[in-house]
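User: Quick one: structure for sequence A, then sequence B.

Assistant: Sequence A:
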Amino acid sequence: MTTQQNPFRFGTVALLGPPNAGKSTLLNTVLGQKVAIVTPKPQTTRNQITGILTDEGAQIVFLDTPGVHRMKGRLNRFLNLSAWQAVEQADAVVVLADAGLYAKKPALLDKELAPLVEGVRRLAQPVFVAVNKIDQVRDKAGLLPVMQALGALWPQAEVFPVSAASGQGVPELLGAVRAVLPEGQAMFPEDQLSTLPLRFLAAEAIREQLFLALRQELPYSVAVEIEQWEEIDGLTRIGGLIWVGRDSHKAMVIGKGGQTLKAVGQAARQELKALVGGKVHLELWAKVRRDWTEDPHFLRGLGLGE
């Protein structure tokens, strides 16, 4: 129960970092339920994904953001813009870094974090660094140089070793974040986990399965729109349109004899059943929109950028 000594707190926390640092995994672990899609491929997250954690002492709105990077192209510029826009509206920022990767390849730390360094240094909000994936570092002595390097990059930040996958160190990180949030009342119902509409979450579930099924660079050339959503007698009918940039990509999404699209649909249907809490009939089809990743109007239609 909240007391005068421990007032209730409400605030927004941006999760920031390079691609594949584990931001979405951390969000899902904190909430105890899957809200953000997760794949082994970098740059899975494209939009700001909100997750709401409510406990006895606070309500925290987390903003999971696209990985900040220096890759070229309009889509990548929109992704970076989305990440920094989330930071602007946050009361605190958690920067994630891949300890498993940097312990093995120290040179990658400076390279991958270079797009973040100056922007994070200029932040007025409290900053925390989550040194993630410590479960992947067998020799724990290898963590110390990584933590020291990150501490040197951002002297204003508190550094926490964590494993977003297992939850190790996450309570300590959460406790520190909660302590710096402003006092205030909860803004959302206690049982609400996200501000995102079901249609968006459904599109993300389908895109997650595309990322897992498709190889090489093709996943980054697909987008998903929900064109149909009907709920009749306990059955949710969902129609998903998969946008690709080239005819050859369409053929790859469909697969020989339609097998790839069928497998994606079957896997996505299981996710959607859990999402809507009932039976789902899912239809997917692919359509070519040439060079959609460079079309600002289309990208804004997907909720990216300004």
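Sequence B:
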Amino acid sequence: MNFIAVDDERLALDNLLSKLKKAQPQAEIRGFLHPQKALEEIKNGFYPDVAFLDIEMYGMSGIELALYFKKAFPKVNIVFVTGFPEYMPEAFALHASGYITKPASVQRIQEELENLRYPPVKEAFIQVKTFGNFEVFVQGKPLFFERSRSKELLACLVDRRGSGLTMQELAAILYEDRPYDSSLQTQLRVHISDLLKTLKRVGAKDMVVRKRNYIAVDTNKFDCDYYRFLDGDVPTMNAFTGEYMVNYSWAELTTGRLYRCKV
């Protein structure tokens, strides 16, 4: 499992990280003193199965941070770790998974992990990053594409936000002025097949919907900064600095739309 721990007191954070490691030795654990740093971490592709959050923190409370986490990942498990039991009603109003009173113990952490609101599933969690270069992360790790054109093909589908493309429309975007002859059609089929094999290898084959002369992405199968921006997510909008899929010239039109939305 992947854990994020946030507490603005160094001693409390170090104690929590130590107890988490003992409770779940195989877990990927990342700790932060600043809530904003934790938000940046999930924007960069790290998906936490469980977020252990202090409540009273400087700059942003654990309740506020939990709201951002749940907006990005609706099924993330939130466990509040705090010295103030009076926050319990407010915490559970957010459908938190658990509540631990400081100091956290290995036993209490294990009890919460055994009774998570959303037990971790084996399905691949996919996060697509479009701001800057286009990148895909599976369970927080970059997805490797053997063919760069297959990666660009997926980027094009993500840019369309679930709207389907015919093979000829897709070819016109990816190969620009090349005639849509049998040679190009064969090349396109090869790249589509390669993309589907790449996604299947990491358990993400359902990300792409393929029908006769039609291809699209299922936007419900992955998280995407571009989509969160369009939904009005404030942290994501602030993270946009004017660069969108900069490795592809055809993405410039969307870049302009995003920039106009932000200003």
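The chain has two domains: 2-114, 139-262. The two ends are 39 Å apart (CA to CA).

User: Thanks, that's what I needed.
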